[in-house]
Amino acid sequence: MSIPLVDLVAQYRSIRGEIDHALHAVLESGTFILGPQVKAFEEELAAYLGVRYAVGVASGTDALILTLRACGIGETDEVILPVYTFVATAGAVSQVGATPVFVDVDPRTYCLDAEQVEAAVTPRTRAIIPVHLFGHPADLAPILDVAARRRLRVIEDNAQALGAEYRGRKTGALGDAGCLSFFPSKNLGGYGDGGMVVTNDPMLADTIQKLRTHGGREKYQPEMSGFNSRLDELQAAILRVKLRHLAAWSERRRWIAGTYRTLLADIGAELPQEAPYARHVYHLYVLRTSQRDAVRDHLRSCGIASGVYYPRPLHRLAPYRRLGGGRGFPHAELAAEETVAIPLYPEMGDDQINAVVSAVRAAVAPAASPR
Ligand SMILES: *Cc1c(COP(=O)(O)O)cnc(C)c1O
Predict the structure, then answer these.
(1) Residue 106 and residue 131 in contact, taking contact as beta carbons nearer than 8 Å
(2) Which one, out of 1, 146, 170, 181, has a CA that is 20 to 30 A from the CA of 28?
């Protein structure tokens, strides 16, 4: 048996009739960019998250870039973000000309450590980007509180956590804007790139709608310099089908995580935690063990995939080395050395779940010396 980290073919087969039907309808319509599918998907996603506006764009990275631009953030501005996240979060800040300011993460949730945010605020700070990493919400209340007191924007990077909840409310809907990615392996993934910005702010929505189409609503009448960054009709049609399954898929992810929690409770590795304020949607199921590389070798020998998200915190990557400098980010450094994601996706069957459990149990020495 070989078990991948995510199985997009199994997912397609489980909804093939609906997907094929939706694709054919778009092909027969002859409309491929910003048509009725994108509009309907924007409305359905806004309703799902409980926000007023949703604007489809070309990727999650573009969702961040266009949001930063729409907030007027650029040269000389600083934006606070976690030092442990996918590189796109920082890349978007750099692309608008602003400076990323890194903050360490909470060692239990791997999300931005809310308590360290305020110390990073300077007169140049314009925004905070909390990342709901691995499907677990960042602790938003204290972050929103600092932002309100210091007059900063909060842009949620919700690329990994669509469907997650913070104190009973959906993540992505709680800051000034939420940025989503529909990269194929995300919890709601298309068959190509795609992204969306969600917001309750009519000015932000209006500006992002203009930015995505060369800076204006009317052809050849730009109001600002813009981009070509649009969600296409085929992706929107696919994502509309998949959105109908998202709640069930999230439940299935949570059920598998619960099974892992029960069957792996006694091993010498730390399992993912769900904070009291959180509903986790397990985009990735990330274990923590000081024997990480040995565990990965054993899983590989059993045909079981594993992944490291992320092997280096951002201040150790080439574009950002000059930023982190001497300041330490001990929680992020340790997480980068000790964490490993094991397979968790909704289409896993009992045999696969059991095989992962047996292999992990065999790979991790029993809990002897707690760290
Ligand atoms: C995937 C991801 C992005 C970028 O999304 P793309 O659609 O791949 O551009 C941004 N931030 C995080 C945390 C992500 O996981």
Answers:
(1) no
(2) 181
Give the pLDDT band of residue 370 (cuts 50, 70, 90): very low
* DSSP code of residue 231: -
- Protein residue with least CA distance to atom 6, ligand 1: 60
Amino acid (one-letter) located at 244: R
Structure tokens at 244: 């109908």
User: In a mutational test of the pocket of ligand 1, which residue from 86, 133, 182, 186 has the highest number of ligand atoms less than 8 Å from its CB?
Assistant: 86
Instruction: Indicate the CATH number for domain 8-240.
Output: 3.40.640.10
DSSP code at position 264: T
* pTM, rounded to two decimals: 0.97
pLDDT of residue 94: 97
CA-based nearest residue to 127, from 163, 78, 175, 91: 78
Instruction: For the chain, give every residue range classified as CATH 3.40.640.10.
Output: 8-240
246-364 sits in which CATH class?
alpha beta
Burial of residue 365 (number of CB atoms within 10 Å: 0-12, 13-18, 19+): middle
> Mean pLDDT over all residues of the chain?
96
Nearest-atom number in ligand 1 for the CA of 181 is: 7
Residue length of the chain: 371
Greatest CA separation found in the chain? 69
Residue 252 has pLDDT above 80, yes or no: yes
Pairing of strands 195-199, 177-181: antiparallel
3-state helix, strand, coil in the chain (%, to 5): 45, 15, 40
Q: Whose CA is nearest to atom 14 of ligand 1?
A: 159
The region that residue 182 occupies, defined by phi over 0 for left and psi between -120 and 50 for alpha, beta otherwise, is alpha
Condensed to tens digits (0 to 9), the pLDDT of residues 216-237 reads 998 889 999 999 999 999 999 9
**Pocket (CB within 6 angstroms of ligand 1):** 59-61, 85-86, 88-89, 131, 157, 159-160, 181, 183, 193, 195
